[in-house]
Structures are given as structure tokens and as C-alpha cells.
Design a protein that fits this description.
The longest helix is centred in the C-terminal third of the chain and has 23 residues, at about 145-165. The protein has about 190 residues and is mostly helical. Helix 1 runs antiparallel to helix 4. The protein has helices spanning about 1-10, 10-25, 70-75, 85-90, 105, 125-130, 135-140, 145-165, 170-180, 190; strands at about 30-35, 40-50, 95, 125.
């Protein structure tokens, strides 16, 4: 219900963003990609498109990449590109709070206890999302962004997401949503 009313309330924003994308970025308005959901089932996640069509890049994004358009940079900065995920929440593929849904290549590598995060629906926001809200900037500072993502960021996100699954509660979700809306980072002790 909250996602339905969220889509209704944000309809003017959806319309403006869609028009801007159509004017400034020829091609489709939405970006759709297979992601791994609860119980490792695949679903199609929807976002506003922020990149050039047929860019052929990797699955990780680095701030300042030429494949990300100027409008796309703005949409990403204010997380407006993620608003269509309210549709995924409405359909039941996602939740407001939970681990961000990974592309199959990453989720497939999870083993043993690390697969705990796949026992719940992925979320629009979560503890790892808040801790690494500046992920694209962090990756831009690295000599090898893919290596840094695979060996530093991703394992830490898995740890944070699994800790969330073990400690999840209504009040923790309220804190996470509030901090997301305020653009703040969660205190480290809440994420551990």
C-alpha cells in the first residue's frame, strides 16, 4: 500500500523525469535488469535510465564515467533513478528496506552463511546502502575499481546485509528509512 501511494504522490516527479530523459537522452526511459531476489529467484528491476544506450560497460558504476549522461549523474546524485523500484515493491519483488538486489554474477558467488541475505526480499535501501551511499565516488578513487568492488566493497556489503537480516526489526527499518530520506549515514553500531 505504501508503495502504491508513494507512486501516486510522486507521479509529478515521475512525469518530469520521464520527459527530461526523453528530451535529453534518446532511447528508452527505463532501464530494466535481471536481479536476484528472495530465495535467489530472478526478477526484473526497473530504474530510470541514466546511461547511454548500448554502452557495453561493466555492472559496476564509477562516478564520472562517460557512459553516464549529465542528466543521469543528477538523477543518481539525488537517487531519483531508483524511484521506479516502487513498482518492484508494489509487485512484491522488493521491500523498502533490505539488501540491495545484486546482479546474478555476484549473488551466485555467495556461499554458506553469506547466503543469509537471500532469505529476505531485497530493498530499496538498507544498512550497506547507507554506509556506501558514496560508492561511485569511492570507486572513482581506485586504480582498479572492479578489483576494489569485488574484494573490499562487496564482502563488506554482504557482512552488513547479513547483520541486518539477523537484527531486522520494525524500528531498525524506520531508522534506515529516516536516515535514507535525510541523506545521512547510519551509525556504525547500528550496522554491525
Amino acid at each position: 500500500m505504501a508503495s502504491f501511494f508513494g507512486m501516486l504522490l510522486l507521479l509529478p516527479v515521475f512525469i518530469v523525469v520521464a520527459i527530461l530523459i526523453k528530451i535529453k537522452m534518446p532511447g528508452p526511459i527505463f532501464f530494466k535488469q535481471q536481479r536476484v531476489g528472495k530465495d535467489a529467484k530472478l526478477f526484473r528491476m526497473v530504474k530510470f535510465r541514466t546511461m547511454k544506450v548500448n554502452h557495453g560497460g561493466s555492472t559496476i558504476s564509477v562516478k564520472g564515467e562517460s557512459r553516464i549522461t549529465p542528466l543521469g549523474q543528477t538523477l543518481r546524485k539525488y537517487k531519483l533513478d531508483e524511484l521506479p523500484e516502487l513498482w518492484n515493491i508494489f509487485k512484491g519483488d522488493m521491500s523498502f528496506v533490505g539488501p540491495r538486489p545484486d546482479v546474478p554474477g555476484y549473488a551466485d558467488k555467495l556461499e554458506g552463511d553469506d547466503r543469509l541475505l537471500l532469505t529476505i526480499r531485497p530493498g530499496l535501501t538498507g544498512t550497506a546502502s547507507l554506509k556506501f551511499s558514496n560508492e561511485e565516488e569511492l570507486l572513482a578513487l581506485q586504480e582498479d575499481p572492479i578489483y576494489y568492488n569485488d574484494h573490499v566493497l562487496y564482502p563488506e556489503k554482504v557482512r552488513l546485509n547479513n547483520n541486518y537480516v539477523k537484527r531486522m526489526s520494525f524500528w531498525l527499518d524506520i531508522k534506515i528509512i529516516t536516515f535514507t530520506l535525510l541523506g545521512k549515514k547510519l551509525k556504525e553500531e547500528w550496522a554491525n
